[in-house]
Amino acid sequence: MRDKTQPNSAEPGDRLIRAGALVFFAGAVATLVTVAPLLLGATPFPTYMFGLSMLMGVGFLIAGAGVLRSIAAGRRAARAATQPQT
């Protein structure tokens, strides 16, 4: 029996993973911009800029939630495929 899933179809959790990756990379850029003046000897940015670095952790959590959602959907599909039809 052939799998009916299209190669481009979006699985549950894919959008969360993509959004998490975008937020993570935004946080990574903010971290580089915030730390650069400290390494170059320039005046450091205000304290709230260091808060933007926390976007890396937030993005990681969002992507992790997407992975968990994708795992749960896969388990539900596998469970439905193995149950006998009545």
What does this structure look like?
There is one protein chain. 71% of the residues lie in helices and 0% in strands. The protein contains 3 helices and no strands. It has helices at residues 14-40, 47-52, 55-82. The longest helix has 28 residues, at 55-82. The model has no long low-confidence stretch (mean pLDDT 86).
Quick tags:
rod-shaped, 86 residues, single chain, 0% strand
Q: What is the overall silhouette?
A: rod-shaped
The helix-and-strand class reads: mainly alpha
Mean pLDDT: 86
The biggest beta sheet is recorded as:
none
Strand content: under 5%
Oligomer: single chain
Helical proportion, percent range? over 70%
Summarize, please.
The chain is mainly alpha-helical and 86 residues long. It has 3 helices and no strands.
In terms of topology, how is this protein built?
Elements: H1 14-40, H2 47-52, H3 55-82
Helix pairs in contact: 1-3
